[in-house]
Amino acid sequence: MAEAHQAVAFQFTVTPEGVDVQLSREALKQIYLSGVASWKKRFARIKNSILTGVYPATPSSWLVVVMATVSSMYCRIDLSMGLICHIRRYLPSCHYLSFQHQTLLSAVLFSTGVWFSGILLCRQSLKLLLSYHGWMFEPHGKMSWSTRVWVALVKMISGRNPMLYSFQTSLPKLPVPSVEATIRRYLESVHPLLKDEKYRKMEVLAQAFQQHTAPRLQKYLVLKSWWATNYVSDWWEEYVYLRGRGPIMVNSNYYIMDFLYVTPSPLQAARAGNIVHSILLYRRKLDREEIPPVMALGIVPMCSFQMERMFNTTRIPGMESDTLQHLLDSKHLAVYHKGRFYKLWLYQGGKLLKPRDLELQFQRILDDPSPPQPGEEKLAALTAGERVPWAKARARFFSQGKNKVSLDAIERAAFFLALDEEAHGYKRGREDSMDSYAKSLLHGRCYDRWFDKSFTLVVYKNGKVGTNAEHTWADAPIMGHLWEVMTRRKEKTQFSKGKPNVNPKMPKLQWKVIDSSYRVAKALADDVDFHCFQFSNFGKGLIKRFKISPDAFIQISLQLARFQGSFCLTYEASMTRLFREGRTETVRSCTRESTAFVRSMMDPQLERLQLFQVAAEKHQQMYRLAMTGAGIDRHLFCLYVVSKYLGVESPFLAQVLAEPWRLSTSQTPQQQIKMFDMEKNQDLVSSGGGFGPVADDGYGVSYIIAGENLITFHISSKFSSPETDSRRFGRNIRQAMLDIADLFNVPANKVAN
């Protein structure tokens, strides 16, 4: 008996005369081309490692140094001051090496040593220069002579045409603040939130901690900062994200929206083909390190380490802690549509499929009339529910057989794609259109997003797109960078043209398990109260004319909008990517100065404008301190982790980390890369993104300052809390922004514009 295996490169038949082997030329050709593509990637990684390893020098600069040294020898000038002769004495004697050859080899070794020494000197010099942050604290538009000299030196040493990871070893380490400074700033931040008696108790706890417990904990933390690349990031990833046992849907994952006004193609398959192709071109550049690092002010490099795990990454559930699985490469996509999972190959013969070829595959999935397998439709809700039940189900049902093969196809995919059956997006005249769009991206139906993947790309029926991103592997600006490149890339046409070149096999995944987490996820999703709106009365253009930071203006407006007789602990995310492997820090934006201004708005006798300006300046000072490693919360968090390792109980740290963030805020970065003039292409404005509420009785607020005259807010809360209402808070924000603008005596028509 003989079996024909069409999916392999040969067929064989056993006969009395022997084994008859029939080779398939096409299959062998595809194997050969795939192998060539794989080896090209390996060589590219080796080349990039060399170029990054010697930056800011280049291999050609080594040749220049060698030639200069050898040339000086022929001119009887010893630049080595006798070192070349010293090196020659230690070379092994060999009849193949003449005296001249030994001298030449010694010169090459000396030149190489000088070259490497120059590289190390440049890197250490650059690291010292990048440790200077005085430029951040200077008045806007003014630059001291010391900063001008610093800028010139940074430009001179930074080299030209850096690759993505060229500056990683030159970035300074995140410094550990002193305990005294952190305690002082902490007490200052909670003073306006606590009544006098509670504040005095907290002050006593803080002083006892500073005198008795903190010195021992701080020593261990300083030791870690010497040894580790970053004293915060690994513990932050493990204890804040991976060890969380609750649902990551809503509680951790966040979303990003498409263009606000335009949709490049109303055809779902065509938009999916174009957008996936753009993402894969970005991944190719990422693998080749051809993406330039993000530079603050175009001068100061930011850490790029978070970008390493953007693709081919999945969060794997565990009983006590999850893990991140990251692969170097993945050649397929996991696709979900109408309760069915598909594995879609992205390459043919080692070449990336073109948009038209991808469109064909997506259209085949959309046209597939087959029903889901038993238990398949709601399977992804396992990733939306509690982590322990998911870990148990994974160990029990996905350890072998078809289930394991199918799960591997998802977890080892480049990313996850959901072809949604609904239509979403901004609709003029419909205030709730953006609300439903946001909720769809944040949690969907709880079973049509694979929340464990690094990100899920959602393509809607009307061509709108969006993404839901897992938070462990990176923060929102990293996904924002991909999103800007992906959505700003000029898509081919509204309707993809041309005939498909290939028709790769597209298997449908098989399952044999019933979802057990759907009810938990559904209850969580139904409780999310979301409101998304555009504030178009004015934007950063007018705010900058007030000589106020737009971010400070919005943060103080949020305090005014939230005020109901008392204030709450407020979280604003700031980045620490000026340091190696830096992630985020907290800006406690509810300050004594901002609360004084808010109270002044209830008293017409007070000088409101002056109080507002003082509050805005204080906010900027807090933000700068957070960015430069002088924040409060990451230091206290790490001290708490050390205390747990040492078995030391600290009432102060326990109370600090138990305080709820009833107002959690974040700004979505805009135009991290300058691909076009936003003012000349206002139709390409982004909608930004958002996240779920952090506290059960609090708000989550994300905003994007999109251009000169538009700010989009994303507000989340919970229906179950009688104290919150997202729409009401949205109205309060709008009114607070207008009330503050009125303080500057701007004519009503200018505010309206």
TrEMBL record:
The active site is at H471. SUPFAM superfamilies: CoA-dependent acyltransferases. Its main location: mitochondrion. It is found in: Mitochondrion outer membrane. Residues 1-47 form the Carnitine O-palmitoyltransferase N-terminal domain. It catalyses: (R)-carnitine + hexadecanoyl-CoA = O-hexadecanoyl-(R)-carnitine + CoA. GO terms for biological process: carnitine metabolic process; fatty acid beta-oxidation; long-chain fatty acid transport. One of its GO terms (cellular component) is mitochondrial outer membrane. It comes from the Eukaryota. The keyword Acyltransferase applies. Its EC number is 2.3.1.21. Catalyzes the transfer of the acyl group of long-chain fatty acid-CoA conjugates onto carnitine, an essential step for the mitochondrial uptake of long-chain fatty acids and their subsequent beta-oxidation in the mitochondrion. This is Carnitine O-palmitoyltransferase 1, muscle isoform.
